[in-house]
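In the laboratory, one determines a bound structure by crystallizing the protein with its ligand and collecting diffraction data. In a computational setting the workflow is compressed into a single prediction: the sequence and the ligand go in, and a structural description comes out. We illustrate the idea with zinc ion.
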Amino acid sequence: MNNTWWMNSILISIVLAVDRVRWKEVCEAGLDNLLQSIDQAAADRRDRQHQNQRASATSTVPKCKVCGLICKSDFGLRSHMRAHNRPS
Ligand SMILES: [Zn+2]
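The predicted complex, in structure-token form:
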């Protein structure tokens, strides 16, 4: 950022402040852009999470090697395995 950039920014601000209708249009357009990019970022994040969930669901299913029970998580499988290892 140099002095010319600042001067241009100040000039644009003054022109927009004088022209209230144009100022309002610029603010609304900027707000629309911001909201659209926020929505797009959230949609992208959801898509990535769903892809990760599908990938992990197909690659490593926590399954008991003794009885074949499929658990929802590795933690659940470890908890289930204690039942097989318990002395009878
Ligand atoms: Zn089992």
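The pocket of zinc ion is lined by residues 64, 66-67, 69, 80, 84 (CB under 6 Å). Keep in mind that any predicted model is a hypothesis to be tested, not a measurement.
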